[in-house]
Amino acid sequence: MNTVWPALIAAVAALGGVTVGALVEPLKLGAARRARVREERAARCATLIETAMNCRAGVLALNLEHRRVAAGGETDMAREDELLRLYRLARKEFRQTVILLRLSGPDKLVESAMKVWEAERALRFARFAGDDGDFLDKDRPPKAVLEVSRGLENVLHEFATVARKLAV
Q1: Phi, psi of 72 (to 5 degrees)
Q2: Please, are residues 64 and 76 in contact by the beta-carbon 8 Å criterion?
Q3: Other C-beta atoms lying within 10 Å of the C-beta of residue 158
Q4: How crowded is the C-beta side of 41, counted as CA atoms within 13 Å?
Q5: What is the distance of C-alpha 144 from the center of its chain?
Q6: Which of 47, 152, 58 is CA-nearest to residue 95?
Q7: How many CB atoms lie within 10 A of CB 45?
Q8: pTM of the model
Q9: What is the pLDDT of residues 111-144, one digit of tens each?
Q10: CA-wise closest residue to 144 among 70, 47, 67, 82
Q11: What was the pLDDT predicted at 118?
Q12: How far apart are CA 168 and CA 164, in angstroms?
């Protein structure tokens, strides 16, 4: 009898440990999955901000190049092609990131990402704006382009605020 009681106690303890482990394991897996989803969402938000800023830089560079040529400068097709290639690459990654957020993000984050999309689109359409006479410095974009560019920056700041609340 002296050897049966310790064995019985050990068996009950082992059974209890297995039962608790079986109950806790799904909770641990769920927490790990939620952490992974948050990390992926945060990475997508960071990528969206980065690619939107790259699109902005590309539009400003293209506008400068178009205005330089319109002012009588020589057309440098290699430079313009490179600017267009970089801009299209940034825009492609931007669109992909927005679509991924639409697939996985909460509605509030998706709404904010779509506002960024619309602001980038408005900037894209403003890229051919010519000189408005307000700036004598030909290295600065026209006022119309600057206003749309600042609008994109403002929307990006709003997106970052929403992303910080929802993605992290």
Answers
A1: 105, 5
A2: no
A3: 14
A4: 25
A5: 25
A6: 47
A7: 24
A8: 0.76
A9: 999 999 999 999 988 877 776 655 445 667 888 8
A10: 67
A11: 94
A12: 6
